[in-house]
Amino acid sequence: MSVFPVRRNGKSMKICHILTITLITLLSGIVTFVFSGFEATANKRGPVNVPSRREFNINNITTTDSFPYPDSNYLNDNSYHEYVITQDNTFKHGYAEVKACARRFPEAIIIGIQKCGTTALAEFLGIHPQLAVKKEQTYFFSSNYSLGLDWYLHQMPCSHGNAITIERTPQYYYMKHVPGRISEMDRGMKLILIVCDPVQRTVSNFAMAKYRNREHINSRFEEEAFTFKNDHDIRVNENNLYVDKSRYAKYLQQWLDAFPRNQIHVVNGDAFSINPVQELRKIETFLNIDPYIKPFHFERTPVSGFYCLRSKSRRLRCLPRTKGRAHPVVKQEYLSKLKQYFAEQNELFFRLLRIEGFIW
Ligand SMILES: *[C@@H]1O[C@H](CO)[C@@H](O)[C@H](O)[C@H]1NC(C)=O
Ligand SMILES: *[C@@H]1O[C@H](CO)[C@@H](O)[C@H](O)[C@H]1NC(C)=O
């Protein structure tokens, strides 16, 4: 770390300003602000065009305008450098460190599957220092494509050093224009696909829709996912959206047509929810980054049964409660019908991807 003690002699208003604000943010210990005036680069990973540490004289900071916003590195569209002012333990001195960072196009995209844990996956990968994860969905290659690559780039988080940028929009998996668009931008794109038991996925998707769309509030899962001719003729409703979205093989070929198999990494979402570390390790290997994520980073909460992240300050960070939304209770006979219905699709899916070890 390159640190620059702030001289207390020859104080200017700016120093006072900086120290005051630094003190306000003692809790985090870090104030981030943006140095504007540089063009954002469309660079992929590689050396950023400035030294990663640069000495600057705290008297001549030209960015006091944007300074009062902690974590403001997303505010300025042209942000290119990030300056981090930290405080030493005695709080007698301010220290300034300059880190270069740049927005970059992603080198990996979590393309799906909805309701299989993409939120947790993005959240958990975010703790890796060699990854810069865009956690909110951009929908760029699907609905926001007309906004252009510049827009897309500016959605990306600032990434330090050699960090790889990742985005996550699970809707992509189902959209037929998306694979071609991604490949057109970057044929070497790495794709991460987290999959889970399609029966559970269908139920979970229904639960989410019921929660989000009020019109579904009184409908029952069985009524939506099945058609009833009579008591003896109960079939899976193929026209139901949530059923359709669980037919994974149906949407796979469009990806295999656009990308070589070795650029697609399949994450076992059921295993991931039981033991995230094991699946995260495989992703580290796939992305060619150092093994960093350890069991220490996770703690299972007794209430939801979900894993939470343990941050440096040892406080637990959990996913929002809606992620643990209760599923409707569905009778075993209906679940069995669904399981039977998906069996053929599943086999095809496994065969096309040459994967095994899945129990659905
Ligand atoms: C601030 O001053 C230092 C030393 O005079 C100089 O090297 C640096 O480029 C200046 N920084 C800015 C942002 O003007
Ligand atoms: C991007 O797409 C999403 C989903 O269609 C939409 O909600 C959002 O407003 C779009 N963003 C912009 C900037 O248009």
Nutshell version of this structure?
InterPro entries: NST/OST, P-loop_NTPase, Sulfotransferase_dom. The protein is of the alpha/beta class.
Task: Give a verbal description of the structure.
By secondary structure, this protein is of the alpha/beta class. The protein folds into two domains: 13-103, no CATH class; 108-353, 3-Layer(aba) Sandwich (Rossmann fold). 31% of the residues lie in helices and 19% in strands. It has eleven helices and 14 strands. The strands form four sheets. Strands 5-7-4-8-11 form a five-stranded parallel β-sheet. It has a four-stranded antiparallel β-sheet with strand order 1-2-3-6. Strand 13 and strand 14 form a beta hairpin. It starts with 12 loop residues before the first helix and ends in a 7-residue tail after the last helix. One 2-acetamido-2-deoxy-beta-D-glucopyranose binds at residues 56-57, 60, 62.
What are the main properties of this structure?
14 strands, four-stranded antiparallel beta sheet, Rossmann fold, 360 residues, five-stranded parallel beta sheet, binds 2-acetamido-2-deoxy-beta-D-glucopyranose, globular, alpha/beta
